[in-house]
Structure formats: C-alpha cells, structure tokens
Amino acid sequence: MVVRLRLKRTVKVLVLYTVVSEILFFLHRVTLFLLHEHRVEMTQRKIIHVDCDCFYAAIEMRDDPRLAGKPLAVGGSADRRGVIATCNYEARAYGVRSAMSSGHALKLCPDLTIVKPRMDAYREASREIHTIFRDYTEIIEPLSLDEAYLDVSDSAHFGGSATRIAQDIRRRVSNQLHITVSAGVAPNKFLAKIASDWKKPNGLFVITPDQVEAFVSGLSVSKLHGVGKVTAERLGKLGIVDCSQLREWDKLALVREFGSFGERLWSLARGIDDRLVHNDSRRQSISVENTYDVDLPDLRSCLEKLPELLDTLATRMARIDSSYRPGKPFVKVKFHDFTQTTLEQAGAGRDLGSYQLLLTQAFNRGGKPVRLLGVGVRLEDLRGGFEQMELFER
Question: Which tens digit of pLDDT belongs to each residue from 361-376?
Fold first, then answer.
C-alpha cells in the first residue's frame, strides 16, 4: 500500500514537472520571439539611394549655360563609332539613351549636340558630393561617379530622420554644385533604388516600413533587382506581370522554375532585401555584355559585334580612377543552348586585334550560335584594400 502511494506521488510529480517544463519552454519561445521583434524594430535600417540627374550632361550645362535647354549628349563622335555616355532630358525626349551609338542618336535627333567627356570635371564634382555624404554617415557604397547608397540608420542628424537627411543632401548639392540629384529613402537597398527613380528628375520619394507591402504589391516584376529583359519575358509567359501575381507562387515552385534566383524573386516580391551597404567594396573587373534578340550564327557575325562592345567598355573604363590599373582582357560567350565560356589572357593587349583573338578561341570551344557576347578587363586594386574609396566608380 505504501509503495503504491509513493508511486502515485511520483507520477504526479513527473506530470507536474512535465507540464511546468512545457510552460517554461513555451514562455521561452515567446520571449525569444518578442526579443527578435523588438530587435528588428530597433535595428530597422534607413537607406538612402542618391542618383544625380543626367550627371555628365548636367555638369556640361552648368559649365556652359549655352547648352542648357537644348538636346545634349556626352559621348564619342559619330564618325568614330562613338557611344553616348549620358544625355539630358531634352535629348531623351527624342529617344536618345546612354550606350546608344552616336550615329543612331543623331538620326533620332539631328539637332543633338554631342560633347566629349571631361572626366576630371566629373570626378571633381563626385568628390564634392562624396564629401557632403560623409557629413551624415561613413557607411557609403558608391555605385558609379553619380550614384551611391547611404546607410543612415545610426545617424544622429535631424533626430535620425532619413527623409530630412535626404532633403538636406539634395539642398546642399544644389547650392554648392548647381546640379540636381534625386533620392529614395526606404528600409533596404532594393526599395531605395526604386524610390530614387520614382520622381526623377530632381525628386525625393520615401517608402516607410508600413508602406512596403502595398507599394511592392503593385510593382512590375521588371523593376525587381536582377530581373532583366529575358527573365521578365519568362515571368510574363507564366502570367506573372506584377509582384502581387508573383506572391501567388510559393518559394519551392519559383526555385524549380528559376533555380537559386527563384528564392531571391520570392523575397523581393515581399519587399525583403537583406543586402548591407558596403563601404569597402572594390571592383575586380569591369565589363559590358549584350544579349541579342536573334542568335549570332557564326564567328564572323560575332566578330562584327566587337567594335561596338569595346566602345562601350572604353566609356566605362573612363570612369575608373587612378586607384585601379587595367589588367588581363577577357571575353564571355554564351551559346544558344545557354552553355557559356570565359577566356582571359595575361599579357594580352586591350586593342581590337587582341579581343578578336580571344573571341575566336572562345567561340571555337562551342562552335554554336551565340546569344550573348561580353568583353571586359580584370582590374588591379592599387590601394591594396586599405583605403576607402574617394570616388564613385562603376
């Protein structure tokens, strides 16, 4: 009898212990959840994307007021197969765009004035803008001479208001440099970049955390980071035109359809972007590539595309400052069946002939029709990774 009573007491104690343990475990999980939510709220990032309005052209119009109000482009001359680097909004009204051949731009706009780039002037303006940025934060990720991300999450200026910081940056750039910049403010890089383009030129657009879901829902998939023409067409064939339709697909289905990029699509459709603003990134290469609407059938047709690609590459190389030294040239070939190859050669020149030899060897690896061609140059970082960037580089 005594043994039986002791056994009952032991069972009761074990049951009570189990119940208490489960309650404590549940409370622990709730506490962790609340702490996580609090931490997310407390560390909500505030990102500003600043983009100068037609930067090169704006500097030219500022320095020569006679150019203002007229169609203007900065780039190479048409008789030397030049390429447009940028143009003002008067020229854009005629359909002129960056990376367009100067000859074609003149056909669209016969009154177009094309001036040669003055990289020293653009770099000096970039330095001044960068100095203004550094008054608000040291976490700056340059994308090009005229574009950068700023993380102002911990900035004490204007009571920590990212919107007021962006307003002040725009005011100071206008007053000091006499050009305009557009800015976007959002909780992440993906949305901040979209926001900066929303009210261009000379605009400011803000997406607050509680506006993210509604804003992204109506966004075209073509606006998503990493979605180019080909991917947008594939999405369209699946009946996905905007993010609200993209949200109807679960993550696994998108991964099956688009590989690892499917997971990225799932996140972006919900306004999620965890990329940090990096202020110590340095380029390892610079390149240009083009996907052709009709496959290039043979080597000869590929070689015919080289001069145009190299002109664009030269324009981009002109934006790199003296902290980089051009190194090995390389070519990239993607065949019609999506197989691809990249070929580079140390000691080779960066002239047309050298790229022709590289392209010939790369093409012979597949010997099939080509859908994409790319050319580029590896870069040597002369700063050794110890100095911060002073210029915005692409």
Answer: 999 999 999 988 999 9
Segments forming the whole domain that contains residue 256: 213-268
289 and 263 inside one domain: no
Cα–Cα distances in Å, from 284 out to 6, 84, 287, 393?
A: 75, 25, 10, 12
Domain shared by 371 and 291, yes or no: yes
CB 296 within 8 A of CB 370: yes
Distance CA 377, CA 380 (A): 10
Give the pLDDT confidence of 300-324 residue by residue, as tens digits: 999 999 999 998 888 878 867 677 8
CA–CA dist 90, 86 (Å, integer): 12
Q: Which of 90, 141, 147, 393 is catalytic?
A: 147
Q: What six digits make up the tokens of 230?
A: 């080909």
User: Do residues 291 and 322 both lie within one domain?
Assistant: yes
Burial class (CB in 10 A: 0-12, 13-18, 19+), 9: exposed
Confidence class for position 24, pLDDT limits 50, 70, 90: low
Catalytic-residue membership of 147: yes
d(CA 184, CA 18): 54
Tell me, what's the pLDDT at 284? 78
Helix boundaries (H) for 274-298 = none
- Beta bridge partners, 379, equal 326
Query: What's the number of CA atoms in the CB half-sphere (13 Å) around residue 66?
Result: 3
